[in-house]
Design a protein that fits this description.
- The chain is an alpha/beta fold and 485 residues long.
- Helix content is 57%, strand content 11%.
- It has four domains: 126 residues, Rossmann fold; 129 residues, Alpha-Beta Plaits (2-Layer Sandwich); 103 residues; 102 residues, Arc Repressor Mutant, subunit A (Orthogonal Bundle), CATH 1.10.10.60.
- Helix 12 runs antiparallel to helix 13.
- The protein is globular.
- The N and C termini lie far apart (71 Å).
Length: 485
């Protein structure tokens, strides 16, 4: 029996699909979702065989959901539905392996015909072997980064049919990495033998022999020049090395890439700007956002860190990240009564290679997610997100219902109703109470002036701040300070 998930934000459509699905031989309803984040959650929890996915749904749109999960669930079939036939959507859907594309309203005849073809595809996919990591991927992602002995190198040469005992490593970084790397491989193949692999937004090439660096630079410029810049295009070239020492060419290529970053003003040291933004985003969302979204964000962070740094430095960065996240969830480094879930720094620094990191980090991050879920309230997820947003940005005078609703990915009216129904207060009153609570703490624990405290709490006008403070506390800020012991 094949399990079906139906995703649509319109109840009549959900009801229609569920009704048409009843009685269809070989299929059963696994669940229903009304938003992108709910769809992500159910896909990971239920692992359906077939998903009918609306494109225009709240939160992540349908194609973004598919892009997030299709590599993890390659056998899962996705059928898109939308109210309008648009070529641009079809273009986005093709690379994601979308099975079919339906234009609403969908007739019962069309729906049943789609189920028939989907059944045939599912049956054929059941017989297909599960795709595992290829020898090339294993070599480019793991082996080439470490020193090899002569026997190991001989085995690699034979397995990958490498024509030369020497080679040079090239690393590319681009928002269009898949496309740029494919084009570069095509250009290089006219003159040299090469192999490559793409992971996240980076590609690594091994070009056999000793090609001239200037020739390679020319090919790199040509490949990059065919695509519009996205603001994050960099490349690094290593030195020609024998196979057992190709890891040195990898290190040289990384250094060259970082030199180019510095020349363009991209900071190196601590977290880079893009890493830092994701780091802050993850800290703000942990315990509030959907776990699938958090796993994806975490993967982007560590993938970038390990791709651009020496392994030891990368481990140090990730140890810092885990300690911050652990403190965000439990307060273990600010509250002596809380015990850390594990010793992140000690465990991370003992890891020997990237394979060890992948195994350790996957298990450790799940511990953080589980702990965050245990400590999270039973409030609806949009409300949890909005409150997390208030706690992060309460000092911004521009913070208002609409910006919090955007962060929570719901409408302002819906968020306002959540505050009223769940908390018995309005958004404005909740924000005001939170700001006054923070200002009271500043009065108790800092030497800031009342004017400075007003600004720190998100108020442009100190007089208005004093008026609000008196309304909630019965005293002006100055009177409150004078009465402190």
């Amino acid at each position: 029996m094949y399990r079906v998930l139906v995703v649509d934000d319109e109840e009549p459509v959900l009801d229609s699909y569920v009704f048409m699905l009843k009685g269809c031989a070989g299929f059963t309803l696994a669940g229903k979702a009304r938003s992108g984040f709910e769809a992500l959650k159910l896909i990971h929890e239920l692992e359906p065989d077939l998903v009918f996915m609306d494109i225009n749904i709240p939160g992540l749109d349908g194609l973004e959901v598919i892009a997030d999960v299709h590599k993890k669930f390659p056998a899962m079939i996705f059928v898109l539905s939308t109210a309008y036939e648009r070529f641009d959507l079809a273009q986005r859907a093709i690379p994601l392996g979308v099975f079919d594309y339906l234009v609403k309203p969908v007739s019962k005849k069309t729906f049943l015909a789609t189920l028939d073809t989907a059944r045939e595809a599912l049956q054929s996919r059941e017989a297909a072997p599960v795709e595992a990591e290829t020898p090339l991927q294993r070599f480019m992602r793991r082996t080439i980064w470490k020193a090899m002995n002569e026997n190991e190198w001989a085995a690699v040469r034979a397995e990958l049919a490498l024509p030369s005992d020497r080679g040079i490593v090239c690393i590319l970084e681009s928002g269009e990495a898949e496309t740029v790397c494919a084009r570069l491989a095509e250009l290089i193949s006219y003159r040299r033998h090469c192999v490559y692999d793409v992971m996240l937004n980076r590609g690594i090439f091994l070009i056999s022999g000793e090609p001239g660096r200037e020739d390679l630079k020319e090919l790199l410029d040509l490949a990059f020049g065919e695509f519009p810049p996205g603001g994050g295009e960099f490349r690094g070239l290593g030195d020609p090395r024998r196979g057992p020492e190709l890891y040195l060419s990898c290190a040289a290529a990384l250094r060259d890439l970082e030199d180019r970053r510095r020349q363009k003003g991209v900071r190196n040291g601590g977290f880079r700007d893009d890493e830092r933004r994701r780091f802050i985003q993850l800290r703000r969302k942990i315990g509030a956002a959907d776990p699938a979204e958090l796993r994806k964000l975490f993967g982007l962070i560590w993938g970038g860190v390990f791709a651009n740094q020496d392994f030891s430095l990368a481990k140090g960065k990730m140890a810092s990240l885990f300690m911050f996240l652990m403190d965000d969830i439990t307060g273990c480094y600010s509250n002596p009564d809380e015990t850390p879930l594990f010793n992140a720094a000690e465990e991370i620094m003992s890891l020997k290679d990237l394979a060890d990191w992948e195994l350790w980090s996957a298990a450790a991050f799940e511990k953080l997610l589980n702990e965050a879920a245990l400590r999270r309230s039973d409030s609806p997820l949009p409300l949890v997100k909005a409150i997390a947003y208030i706690k992060e940005y309460y000092a911004d005078p521009a913070l208002q219902l609409s910006t919090a609703a955007e962060a929570a990915q719901v409408s302002p009216a819906y968020l306002s109703r959540l505050f009223s129904d769940q908390l018995g207060t309005s958004f404005v009153d909740y924000l005001t109470a939170f700001r006054i609570e923070k200002s009271e703490k500043l009065i108790r624990e800092s030497s800031l002036s009342i004017k400075e405290i007003a600004f720190a709490a998100g108020y442009r006008d100190p007089n208005y701040f004093s008026k609000i403070f008196r309304k909630l506390r019965g005293l002006s800020p100055s009177e409150f300070a004078e009465r402190l012991p």
